[in-house]
Amino acid sequence: MNPDFPIPTLSRSATGLTLEGVELAEIAARFGTPTYVYSLSALRDAFAAYQAALAGRKSLVCYAVKANSNLGVLSAFARWGAGFDIVSGGELARVIAAGGDPGKTVFSGVGKSAAELRQALEADIRCFNVESSAELERLNMIAGELGKRAPIAFRVNPDVDPKTHPYISTGLRNNKFGVAFDDARTLYRHAATLPHISVSGIACHIGSQLLDPAPMAEATDKLLALVDALKSDGITLDHFDFGGGLGIRYRDETPPAVADYLAPLIERLAGRHEEICFEPGRSLVGNAGLLLTRIEYLKHGEEKNFAIVDAAMNDLIRPALYDAYHEVVAVRERETTAEVFEIVGPICESGDFLAHDRSLAVQQGDLLALLSAGAYGMGMSSNYNTRARAAEVIVDGEQVLLVRERETIEALFALERALPPA
Ligand SMILES: *Cc1c(COP(=O)(O)O)cnc(C)c1O
Description:
It is built from 12 helices and 21 strands. By secondary structure, the chain is of the alpha/beta class. It has 2 domains: 10-39 and 286-412, Lyase, Ornithine Decarboxylase, Chain A, domain 1, CATH 2.40.37.10; 108-280, Alanine racemase (TIM Barrel, Alpha-Beta Barrel), CATH 3.20.20. The strands form 3 sheets. Strands 4, 14, 15, 16, 17, 18, 19, 20 and 21 form a 9-stranded mixed beta sheet that branches. An 8-stranded parallel β-barrel has the order 5-6-7-8-9-11-12-13, surrounded by 5 helices. A 3-stranded antiparallel beta sheet has the order 1-2-3. The longest helix has 19 residues, at 214-232. The chain is globular. Residues 64, 66-67, 85, 108, 205, 208, 243-245, 279-283, 375 line the site of pyridoxal-5'-phosphate. Pyridoxal-5'-phosphate (PLP) binds next to helix 10.
């Protein structure tokens, strides 16, 4: 754990902040701002922690693509042997383009279209995590048309409270995800009778940014009780998928280490030989990334000071959406006394803030780094206000690889048409 920053490979040298030893100021000079910067060794270490915690077990870590779907990031995980958790046909196409293995890919989501089911069947993915009986029927029909059997797990809603933000809590009875725990056994029995369905596993995903292992342990107990009931019905499964959700440090949170988070679960699985799967997103990429931005103006108001930066809510929406906290650090510290700033972007919305009340010693033109921005940052970005999206780079030791070019303005409206002349 890095005592100075939540990003393990970030440090401060005499000349400024460095990631894996590379000066962030150099990256800004070369690629411009705003730019998302990811550390390959931080990604590798985060993935390796899951592999180490699961050593000796038949297991598969399926990176949740939606957390950061850049092809550079996906190709790194593919190279290390990861599977993938996807929520759309678009994400499947990305996984394949990045060299990922569809045979290690699971497909989650409540609204899979017929076209997406067909695409995933043709790619022979590992498992469909089915979220309703209507989806099961549709899948059975399409698999029949293709002369295939679709491997399925039901995503079961174990109704445990993960004690996280309501927008990212997904395992409670009253939300749209998964099938109700009490209906699951009947659904499995029915699925087992369908000609083009092959019952393969059971899945759950209870929420995100979880900081306590207890809800996962509780969900595991419920799932295993159901697994045993199914066994008595003659339905055996080959894998258990426990979803994602492990939290990260943004500010002063103290999330458990991966091994400690998984320990109660692994303990409960003693004597069982099914493959165990996880779908981590945030905990693999969140603290491998930062958003590098430049101060356009400092504005001293009557009540507040504003640092207006060239990144905005279209680049990083988490503060506006969830009131999320990202640490803001000056790339070069100045000797001047610090002042308290609102960090805001140029977008015409009062919700366009990146951070509140941050004490910084900065001047116009200085660079800032918004930390812990590797997950749900670029992936949730938009072109609001016709802003071209940021570039993305991966730092690998001394190398800095451009993995997404900065968008051009022309590309933003290339698909649009003005009305013909009147
Ligand atoms: C979002 C999501 C994940 C990843 O969640 P994290 O909190 O980023 O680990 C995993 N599985 C499913 C089904 C998801 O929707």
